[in-house]
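Whiteboard transcription, Tuesday session. T.W. wrote the structure tokens on the left side:
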């Protein structure tokens, strides 16, 4: 039954997915709001480029779902909120799930729900909260045939990097991805490795589940296009990018460029032509 919704999420030609994340306002960080101050406009701009999915929160999903017609992107619903992203972390960190997450997702006609699985140095309590969230939502997803996307996210120490800095160490990513699989994920949304040429090992450890790669921090156009090309070649089933699209000077053009890589196998050089306009 979950396959019916997965059919709406993954492109039928390539069997890959391009999900644009616009859920950053959930996390109470001023820097995350650049490019999405006007959410209605941000969603319309992204939708015009026709990605496979848009990742939104319960309070913003209406901007997508109120668009008439059946050709709009699928909704991926963010179900958890956390306070772990700032340069100066608060005294107590948390990851909390919205109430009745799958019921809310069904009411919003979502195609998938997404929940975090954090690994933060020195903060095992936050990992515990994430696991409790997953244990709570997994049976509901199975009962309601709602695909579950788990986002294993390895952080660098805040004292080292400050703020929202992911750790691309393969040896840290692999066990967290595998834990997400063991906890019952239907889709994995994982960090890119520092060395993209070994990303096939992340795909392998996921045991056949589709792996969508996170965009991470803001990067130069050439870097993000070349990285995406390499990740797709390494077996990734798609991408989930946010700030590299919504904070771009040409969000629709960047979306089309990345779509051409993900679904058509276009090279980074050829894909960059979409940015010319």
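and on the right, the sequence the group agreed on:
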């Amino acid at each position: 039954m979950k396959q019916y919704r997965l059919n709406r999420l993954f492109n039928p030609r390539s069997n890959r997915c391009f999900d644009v994340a616009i859920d950053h306002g959930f996390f109470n960080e001023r820097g995350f709001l650049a490019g999405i101050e006007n959410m209605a406009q941000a969603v319309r701009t992204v939708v015009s480029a026709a990605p496979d999915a848009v990742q939104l929160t319960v309070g913003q999903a209406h901007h997508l779902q109120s668009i008439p017609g059946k050709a709009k992107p699928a909704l991926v619903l963010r179900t958890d909120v956390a306070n772990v992203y700032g340069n100066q972390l608060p005294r107590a960190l948390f990851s909390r799930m919205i109430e009745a997450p799958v019921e809310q997702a069904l009411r919003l006609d979502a195609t998938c729900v997404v929940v975090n699985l954090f690994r933060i140095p020195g903060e095992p309590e936050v990992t515990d909260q994430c696991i409790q969230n997953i244990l709570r939502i997994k049976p509901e997803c199975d009962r309601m045939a709602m695909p579950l996307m788990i986002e294993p996210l390895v952080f660098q120490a805040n004292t080292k990097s400050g703020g929202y800095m992911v750790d691309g160490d393969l040896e840290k990513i692999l066990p967290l991805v595998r834990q997400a699989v063991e906890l019952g994920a239907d889709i994995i949304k994982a960090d890119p490795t520092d060395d993209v040429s070994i990303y096939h090992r992340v795909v392998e450890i996921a045991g056949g589940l589709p792996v969508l790669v996170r965009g991470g921090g803001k990067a130069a156009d050439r870097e993000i296009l070349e990285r995406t090309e390499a990740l797709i070649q390494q077996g990734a089933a798609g991408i989930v990018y946010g700030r590299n699209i919504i904070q771009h000077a040409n969000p629709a053009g960047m979306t089309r460029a990345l779509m051409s890589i993900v679904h058509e196998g276009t090279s980074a050089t050829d894909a960059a032509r979409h940015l010319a306009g």
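Someone added at the bottom: The mean pLDDT is 92.
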